[in-house]
Specification:
Arc Repressor Mutant, subunit A; Nucleotidyltransferase, domain 5; 400 residues; binds zinc ion; alpha/beta; five-stranded mixed sheet
């Protein structure tokens, strides 16, 4: 007869095994090619524990063995890598002007992707369209035979902390939308984790989670597209996204740069988005909602009016970057989004302002790296896929 005590002990053992397997997976994810002895040293586990955990992860197709390697334990051991052939995570970004879909392998490689323009419409129509595109993506030969770990959806607005509700997407006019509830009935066969997050937060998470080798302590991703948002992520093994009590942390597009200035889509006046955003540049240069902003502007970059508009927007972007540096002081800032494709007329004034002012407080010794992503089309979608993987590895359920 089993006692409560025995049940508890059995539960603990099971829990410990799961924790150990998560620790092993996180070690191999961050440093591909580790041997069992290396993992034991890094994760501070016994060799027997690592041996049993690795065996089980090989059988479950999470890991694969590679070449023989010298290890810190003396005897050569097999290099271990993530098995990139067996699982896939789906990631989606619902943008103001389009849908972006990716399927990623465990190491973050994009196995398949799809991008299509979509004019702003209702959440219901968007969910239906997205479900069709996801169904098509899942039947591609690249995904044949793979087990899906789940889907992450990135949306252009703040998400309520602890609740899968999009509070407001000012540039879509959506308010209090449970988007996953609209999507799920169209995809009853899609198992695994279902997650939703703000697009800049998903992007920030993916930028730190899929990185190998040197990993920054913290990272801010700035998403400069139709609107402007940012996401702060801190920590190595279990990166944490800063959300704030209402999910508003990082909503830099609605920090005010000009009190009493132009009206923003959020209803306030003088928000940063009234000075630098896809929608304010469209309004200044009379570019229609149905046109692709970057494609419409690239042939016009020589025009004085275009150059003046982008220069003003670039200076405002520089102010935002500098304010982020002082407000959050991340180890690295990553700038992505469609506006980056407008190139030097927008970026030069932004980067010049940021670089020339970032060290006034602390002298010139420490320049914070700022990395530009030229093509950020799938960055948020890939980040949403990263969040699915993290939730499976670190979550309460057994690894499949
Ligand atoms: Zn605003």
């Amino acid at each position: 007869m089993s006692t409560n005590f025995q049940q508890h002990r059995a539960g603990d053992l099971h829990f410990l095994k799961r924790l150990n397997r998560s620790a092993i997976l996180e070690s191999v994810r961050r440093s591909p090619g580790l041997t069992r002895a290396d993992i034991a040293t890094q994760a501070q586990l016994t060799k027997a524990t690592v041996g049993a955990g690795v065996q089980s992860l090989l059988q479950l197709n999470w890991l694969r063995e590679g070449e023989l390697q010298k290890s810190s334990g003396g005897r050569p051991g097999r290099a271990l890598h993530l098995n990139d052939q067996h699982f896939a995570m789906l990631g989606v970004e619902v943008g103001v002007h389009g849908l972006r879909l990716v399927a990623c392998s465990l190491s973050g490689e994009q196995i398949a992707s799809h991008h299509e323009p979509l004019a702003p419409t209702t959440p219901e129509i968007t969910a239906k369209r997205l479900a069709k595109r996801l169904q098509a993506l899942m039947t591609l030969p690249e995904l044949a035979g793979r087990r899906c770990l789940g889907i992450g959806v990135a949306l252009p607005g703040p998400i309520a902390p602890g609740e899968p509700v999009l509070r407001l997407a000012p540039n879509l006019g959506w308010r209090d939308v449970r988007f996953l509830d609209l999507l799920r009935p169209h995809l009853p066969q899609l198992e695994g984790a279902w997650l939703v997050d703000n697009e800049a937060k998903s992007a920030a998470f993916g930028e730190i989670y899929f990185r190998t080798g040197h990993i920054p302590d913290s990272l801010v991703y700035v998403s400069a597209g139709t609107g402007i948002g940012s996401g702060l992520v801190e920590g190595h093994h279990r990166p944490l996204v800063t959300r704030g009590i209402q999910g508003l942390a990082g909503e830099i597009g609605h920090t005010v740069l000009q009190p009493g200035g132009l009206y923003c889509h959020c209803g306030n006046r003088g928000c940063a988005e009234t000075l630098v955003s896809g929608w304010s540049i469209r309004a200044s240069l009379s570019i229609g909602e149905d046109e692709n902003l970057v494609e419409a502007l690239l042939p016009r970059l020589h025009e004085d009016e275009v150059r003046r508009t982008l220069h003003r927007a670039g200076e405002a972007l520089g102010v935002l970057l500098l304010n982020l540096h002082h407000a959050q002081n991340p180890s690295e800032i990553v700038l992505g989004g469609s506006l980056v494709q407008l190139g030097s007329p927008l970026l030069d004034p932004a980067l010049a302002y940021f670089k020339s002012n970032q060290n006034r407080l602390l002298g010139t010794s420490q320049q914070i790296p700022l990395r530009l992503i030229d093509d950020a089309t799938f960055i948020a979608a890939r980040g949403a896929a990263a969040q699915v993987l993290a939730s499976v590895i670190q979550g309460p359920n057994d690894l499949l």
